[in-house]
Design brief:
Blueprint lengths: L2 H15 L4 H7 L1 H7 L9 H13 L6 H20 L8 H16 L13 E6 L1 E2 L17 E2 L2 H18 L21 H12 L6 E2 L6 H19 L2 E4 L2 H10 L9 E4 L27 E7 L4 E7 L10 E8 L3 H15 L10 E3 L4 E4 L4 E6 L2 E6 L2 H10 L6 H6 L8 H14 L2 E3 L11
Parallel strand pairs: 1-7, 4-5, 5-6
Antiparallel strand pairs: 2-3, 7-8, 8-9, 10-14, 11-12, 12-13
Helix pairs in contact: 1-4, 1-5, 2-3, 7-8, 7-11
The structure holds iron/sulfur cluster (SF4).
Length: 448
């Protein structure tokens, strides 16, 4: 436990959650303001807090002792995340390649992800409840009302069987998968028991985000002790804060030290954070980026269903930024294993072939530089291409409804001798996220 780090972290959180009023209050009455947020002057002196305030508000690493300490911790977490998402953690090359192609596509088409190298896409997630009791007004997944939960005792054997199956099919990377999605973990009274089973089979503890830390403080504290300091750093526990009033209640309910390893996500409208205009925020001001990090299996235990899904940029067709390709029911762990393997084989597409129909990824534009060069440009990156007559013919179709290399050759627009080279170029563009499968692509309102 690091008292100074946790106190500095709290100051930072206050500035982020309440950027209009907190800095003024701190300047006007530093001692009282520090006391109100539970930061002792023996840990952070008022003059230090005031000097640091500028650093906090301007995000200057040099001036700001918190950001310097935070950077060291983030580097350690990033190292752990990179290990967890490395090739060795996947049972097959296919799923590893697929996840990275999805990640490349999302990063390329959203500026919001720039500099967030620790954003990962998970190959599996589990819902232990159906719907959510919290009903946040900003819910990007537009979670439905709570309609039931899966109890541990009734599902113990099935749960253990499912976890063993994902370990076999996906590999240790399955141990990154959260046990919530459009759900509140604490809605399930047995959440901790499911987590204990998860730790037993997968050897890790899943990341938890809860909006119920105020509603159930004893349970929240018990979960913190269950995880322990190492488990907490490994699991990445987060509290979602819905309003400024809630934020200051949290400050009073928990000490800075208790929340040292907990990330507070300030979702109150006054905060510096911005919502994605998806789910319940569709049509409101905001950037449309996908908030889902699941590219693979979604296991819904209450309904005994497994789906294959992928994050997409929110659009009228997919307002929550989630595209679900297929959903199957299962009756037993063995049945689950078969269905899950089938879905991965069918939908985790990591390679293209001559007859794969392709199109430009929505939000990627083609522009001509000069007679021989062109650019494909996404919101957060681009690539230069040499454009000969074959590539030009292909690009014309990729900008529209799409085409395969075989179709382009059959139509006479592409020389048969150039087909191999063109397919190689398409494979590279597909892996980097510039083109996608035309049947899977979603029209984006930002497109011309
Ligand atoms: S944001 Fe989370 S807690 Fe809030 S309604 Fe959506 S799923 Fe529930």
């Amino acid at each position: 436990m690091d008292r100074r780090y946790s106190a500095l972290k709290r100051l930072y959180e206050c500035c982020s959650a309440d950027p209009l009023q907190f800095p003024t209050r701190l300047r006007d009455d530093p001692s009282e303001t520090l006391r109100e947020i539970g930061v002792g002057e023996d840990v952070v002196r008022t003059d230090e807090a005031l000097v640091m305030l500028d650093g906090l508000c301007t995000q200057s690493w040099e001036k700001n002792p918190y950001l310097a300490l935070y950077r060291d911790r983030v580097l350690a977490v990033e190292k752990l995340i990179r290990q967890r998402a490395s090739r060795e953690q996947f049972a097959s090359e296919k799923m590893y390649r697929y996840i990275n192609i999805v990640r490349n596509r999302i990063f390329l088409t959203n500026r919001e992800f720039c500099g967030h190298d620790n954003v990962l896409y998970y190959p599996v997630a589990f819902e232990l409840s159906k719907g959510c009791s919290v009903q946040c007004p900003f819910c990007g997944l537009a979670a439905s009302r709570l309609a039931g939960v899966a109890r541990y005792e009734e599902n113990r054997l099935l749960w253990h069987g499912i976890l063993a199956a994902v370990l076999e099919i996906i590999g240790p990377a399955a141990g990154m998968g959260p046990c919530y999605f459009a759900t509140e973990p604490f809605d399930n009274p047995d959440y901790e028991r499911f987590m204990a089973g998860y730790r037993e089979i997968l050897g890790t503890v899943p990341q938890t985000t809860t909006a119920a830390a105020l509603r159930e403080p004893e349970r929240f504290r018990a979960l913190l002790s269950f995880l322990g300091e190492d488990g907490l750093r490994e699991a990445g526990m987060r509290i979602s804060v819905c309003s400024l009033k809630e934020f200051y209640r949290l400050m009073r309910m928990y000490t800075a030290e208790e929340l040292e390893d907990i990330e507070l996500i300030a979702n109150n409208p006054e905060s510096v954070n911005r919502y994605s205009a998806s789910g319940r925020m569709v049509g409101k001001e905001g950037i449309r980026y996908p908030i889902s990090c699941i590219a693979g299996l979604m296991v819904r235990l209450p309904d005994r269903e497994v789906s294959f899904m992928e994050p997409v940029n929110p659009s009228p067709e997919y307002p929550t930024g989630v595209q679900t390709f297929e959903t199957l029911s299962f009756r037993s762990a063995e049945d689950f294993r078969e269905k899950a393997s089938f879905l991965i084989e069918k939908w985790a597409i990591d390679r293209i072939h001559a007859d794969t129909r392709l199109r430009l990824t929505p939000r990627v534009l083609f522009s001509r530089e000069d007679a021989v060069n062109g650019l494909l440009i996404g919101k957060a990156g681009g690539i230069r291409l040499r454009i000969d007559s074959n590539m030009e013919a292909m690009l014309l179709h990729l900008q529209g409804d799409g085409i395969s290399v075989s179709e382009a050759v059959a139509s006479g627009e592409v020389n048969v001798l150039a087909a191999g080279r063109l397919l190689g170029a398409m494979e590279t563009l597909f892996e980097k996220g510039f083109i996608t499968l035309s049947g899977k692509a979603v029209r984006d309102p930002d497109e011309g």
